[in-house]
Amino acid sequence: MIEAVALRKHYGRTKAVDDLSFTVRPGRVTGFLGPNGAGKSTTMRMILGLDTPTGGDVRIDGKHYAELKQPLRKVGALLDAKWVHPNRSARSHLKWLAVSNKIPVSRVGEVLEVVGLTEVAHKNAGGFSLGMSQRLGIAGALLGDPEVLLFDEPVNGLDPEGILWIRQFMHRLAEEGRTVFVSSHLLSEMAQTAQDLVVIGKGQLIAQTSTEQFIADATQDHVRVRSPHAAKLREILAAHATVTDDSASGALVVHGIPAQRIGEIAAENHVVLHELSPQRGSLEEAFMQLTKESVEYHSH
Ligand SMILES: Nc1ncnc2c1ncn2[C@@H]1O[C@H](COP(=O)(O)OP(=O)(O)OP(=O)(O)O)[C@@H](O)[C@H]1O
């Protein structure tokens, strides 16, 4: 469990993190979302003791990072996948990490296997693709078999296969009961990966909730309807709901009544339907809606 209470980090007049409180629970993947410059990386660095808060507090299972006796056994982190020595092999990089953190070297083979790098473990990490580097970074984070895992933008720049692998891997880590905290800009990806969200803007908390609730609160569900008698149907439905046209597709967009009721009304009026599809709001819509006040630089 990670707990931040009234956390602050000011750089001169810039309030990178400003009175931020949130909790990240075990057994779930929690997404950390916010526009550029919202303070995500700064927060992660404070969790890991790499930056000192200006005020407030952040603890991992009740302790500050600096108080952890064997930090890598409690917290694993992937902040920057490219920080390995380019002339070191993947295996020797992990061995060095293990030895310097008093972790049995036997773990190296295990984590290489877990991330699927066993066959290339003898190769220099400098020649690794981004996807392989991410896997190596994750192997390093897993060395101490930690309960808490932090990933800063782990899918940035990855191909679809790499993204899918990371998504499934995070789910597995959470199913094992670990606390998984992951920041990302890729909202549709986060919608599929994270069960819970901590959303920040300008260093402040915008929402802490389940992904499902976040989307439901910030967007409106609606129903798409297509009919060869669209004009007649629009007129009939207008007595029951708000109806607009999606000019690109020729569909009607209906807010205010469920698909089932629309089907009944159409049947009662002998109107043929070619499509009747409930639409859920997306995480993108919800995010734009809730963070529009918090984006540092707007495009006009
Ligand atoms: N070392 C620093 N010195 C001065 N300002 C900083 C420093 N680190 C971060 N900032 C500022 O603090 C704010 C938050 O930055 P941070 O990198 O934490 O945001 P972020 O949400 O991770 O953004 P991104 O998604 O773009 O990486 C920004 O305005 C940034 O310019």
UniProtKB/TrEMBL annotation:
<comment type="similarity">
    <text>Belongs to the ABC transporter superfamily.</text>
</comment>
<dbReference type="Pfam" id="PF00005">
    <property type="entry name" value="ABC_tran"/>
</dbReference>
<dbReference type="InterPro" id="IPR027417">
    <property type="entry name" value="P-loop_NTPase"/>
</dbReference>
<dbReference type="GO" id="GO:0005524">
    <property type="term" value="F:ATP binding"/>
</dbReference>
<dbReference type="InterPro" id="IPR003593">
    <property type="entry name" value="AAA+_ATPase"/>
</dbReference>
<protein>
    <submittedName>
        <fullName>ABC-2 type transport system ATP-binding protein</fullName>
    </submittedName>
</protein>
<dbReference type="GO" id="GO:0016887">
    <property type="term" value="F:ATP hydrolysis activity"/>
</dbReference>
<dbReference type="InterPro" id="IPR003439">
    <property type="entry name" value="ABC_transporter-like_ATP-bd"/>
</dbReference>
<keyword id="KW-0067">ATP-binding</keyword>
<dbReference type="InterPro" id="IPR017871">
    <property type="entry name" value="ABC_transporter-like_CS"/>
</dbReference>
<keyword id="KW-0547">Nucleotide-binding</keyword>
<feature type="domain" description="ABC transporter">
    <location>
        <begin position="2"/>
        <end position="227"/>
    </location>
</feature>
<keyword id="KW-0813">Transport</keyword>
